[in-house]
Amino acid sequence: MKKDGFEQLYEEHAEALLGFLVYRTGDRALAEEVLADTFERVLRSRKAFNPRKASAKTWIYSIALNRLRDVLRKRDAEARAVQRSEAGAPEAALDTDRVEERGTVTAALARLDEDEREAVALRYGSDLSVAEVAKTLGVKVSTAEGRIYRGLRQLRELLEEPASRG
Q1: pLDDT tens for residues 130-162?
Q2: Fold topology of 1-91
Q3: Concatenated DSSP letters of 77-107
Q4: 145: left (phi over 0), alpha (psi -120 to 50) or beta
Q5: CATH number at 92-166
Q6: What single-letter DSSP state applies at residue 54?
């Protein structure tokens, strides 16, 4: 892949990928950071890209998903370290009744299992087809469908919780 091919990939995929990352994280700054890291890695590894193994879109999303997982693991480890250092400090409860709709959805997404959260985020945050979700996650189409279905069902239940309490 030549330099102009990279620029074309960026133009074709950056906006949708950013949408997925914002949808997945609920944090635009983090999403932009992961997007930049992703395309830096795409640029550095473009010679290794094999279009016979996967589409460019799938390849880019796989890189982004791996980078996002790394960042989230690091954040979780840092949060655990802070929590241990502040042993006994009460955590603020998330009051979804007072959070804007986007915040409510982000909170509900965060409560899904990681596999389901990623499948839903890829499907609806990036508007990938179920087949593209499956390929990006390295699973069968039926597995991706199941994760999306379970994730949406659980999201619906989580989003209906505040209404049922009132």
Answers
A1: 999 999 999 999 999 999 999 999 988 888 875
A2: Rna Polymerase Sigma Factor; Chain: A (1.10.1740)
A3: HHHHHHHHHTTTPPPPPP-TTSS-HHHHHHH
A4: alpha
A5: 1.10.10.10
A6: S
